[in-house]
Structure formats: structure tokens, C-alpha cells
Give the backbone structure.
Amino acid sequence: MASPTRTTSMMLALLAAMVMLSGCGGADDQGSSAEPAAKNQAPADGSGGTDRDGAGQSSGDADDDRAGTPDTAARVLPAGRDIVYRGQISVRVKNVTTAANRVESLTRAVDGVVFAEDTANVPGFPAESSASLTLRVPPTEFRSVLTKLAGLGERLSQSQTAEDVTTQVVDTKSRVATQQRSVARVRALLGEANTLGEVVQIESELAKREADLESLEAQLARLKDVADLATIEVNLVGPDAEAPVEVEDEDLGFPAGLRGGWDAFVQIVVVGLTVLGALLPFLLTAALLGVPAWLIFRPRRPATVPPPA
């Protein structure tokens, strides 16, 4: 059995070895952590490290710019939604023809289309000319196109609206799917018909359901069309042309009711005078021919004889 003195000496030696090992590990850790710090530290003469710092700063600024400026598509089109964008802008330009050509170029540049164009040129007075264009552009380019159109000259008026038709699209899609299944069932019944009366009755019902299906499909196509392309109404006017006047809607209140009642009264009077003017020639002819005829051919009363006194 080992003596107590020997046991104590072994324990002290083991403890000293553990302290030495922990000290070596701490030195290694400090050296490894100091090495990357020395690598990242900029040189005293400013060569090399300045480029890396500048590149890192430029990268950070670029990331900040991207984070601060959202993408146009994300800002205009919410994910998973069908939005109908409509806009109107009136601009006074120096030359209407040149501005109209510029509008067409802007539209083609964003893969849009000029849906309609109406130009009113005044012979001898080009400054009084005007033009109206209807543009269909991708929704992601809606705001940028409006901004570019405003830069063609002096902006007189501008308005824009957005309407969410997601619910209508989903509802119409569901109705189309239901109607398609209904048409398929009726067609299956038509194949099983045995008599002429059954065939005629089923064909009539099938035609009706197919017409309803075509109507729903047309509604869905219309909704998708107005949601896939934004609409912009552009009015271009020359330097001396009159600007289009926007009419404010006042559908409620006493002034709106008074104005509506007066308009209805004027329309009734105009209609009455129109009818009277149309009948007046016939009334005059009837009076000129009818009065003398009545005087000539009217029945005469027999003379009354007074009774004898």
C-alpha cells in the first residue's frame, strides 16, 4: 500500500501538469485570435487595406441602397393580388405631333401598346392642336410611364386609381369551373338519350348552359385583361389650345338634387315642344279644312213656331 507522502506527491505532480497544459492551450488560443486580427488590421502606409475597406464600404452602401429602394414590381403589384391600375394625365406641350410620337416610343419601350389615338390638328394654327391617346402598359411600368409623360411639358392634371379585383377573379373562376362540370354532365346525358323528345330537351338545356359558360369565360378574360395591363389616358394640348376641364362629381346634397331636377324639367319641356312642333302642321291643316266643312255640313235645327196666344 502506498504511503501518504507518496500519494500526496503524485497528486501535486498531476496538478502541476494540468496547470501547464491549460496555460499552453490559452497561449495557443490567444495566438490564433491575434493572427486574424493582425490580418484584418490596416497597414501603416495605407496600401492594400484601404482598398479592402473601400470595397467593403461600397458593398455596404450598395446593399443599403437596394434595401432602401424597393423594386417597382414589388411596390406596384402586391403578391398574389389582381390589381387594376388606371391613370389620366394632361400635358401642355410645344408640338403635339412630336409629343405624340414620343408617347408612342415610350409605350413601345416598355412593351406596351397604344390602344387608341385621336389627334385634332387645326390647319394654320398648330399651337391649337390637341391629341388624346389611350395606352396599355404593364403594371410594373405604370408609375414610371406616368413620370415620363409628365416630363414632356407642363403637367396640367394627373390622377391615378387602383382597384383590387382579386375576389371577382376568384369568384368568376369558381363559377366557370362549376359551369364546365354542369355542361359535361348534360353532354353525358345527351349521349344516353333514347327518344327524340329527350334529345331535343337535353340539347336545349345544353345550349343554354354553354351560353352561360361562354359569358362567364368572357367576364374572366375581361378581368384578366384589365389586370394584366394598366390603362393610361393621355391628353396632349398645344400652347394655345384649351385644356380639358375636369368635371367634379357631386352626386349628393341639395345643389345636386336641384341641378338634376332642373335638367329633368328642361328635358321635359324640350320634348313637349318637339312634339308640338311635329303636330302643328297637321293641326293647322285640320283647322283650315275642318272648320269650313263643319260650317257647311252641320245639321240645321228646324225653326220653332211660337204657340198661339
